[in-house]
Design a protein that fits this description.
The protein is an all-alpha fold. Helices cover about 50% and strands about 0% of the residues.
Length: about 100
């Protein structure tokens, strides 16, 4: 009561304890987003490490990692090469002939 003059707990005391940023946690976060698993989301990584996602996001931001969502929009097939060659020949003939 002497500190704040109130008997009710402060807002800060009601929250869960802060997660400490340790070198071991930083290493685990960076290993969690390595090249083998680049598409893991920040909330999933936070859940796996039992910390809040904002801490993960801050750590990644300080390491110059930026969130991105990879979306595969098209793929090449075996027939694409001959189609592309025919397309290029057609356009070449239009411009030169």
């Amino acid at each position: 009561m002497r500190d704040i003059g109130n008997l009710t707990p402060s807002h800060r005391d009601a929250e869960r304890p802060r997660t400490k940023r340790t070198p071991a946690l930083e290493k685990a976060v960076l290993e969690g987003v390595d090249e083998e698993n680049p598409d893991i989301s920040t909330p999933n990584l936070a859940h796996n490490l039992h910390v809040i996602s904002s801490l993960i996001h801050r750590m990644l931001k300080q390491e110059n990692y930026h969130p991105c969502h990879y979306t595969k929009v098209q793929a090449l097939s075996r027939n694409d090469f001959s189609r592309r060659v025919n397309f290029c020949r057609c356009w070449y003939n239009m411009y030169t002939g």
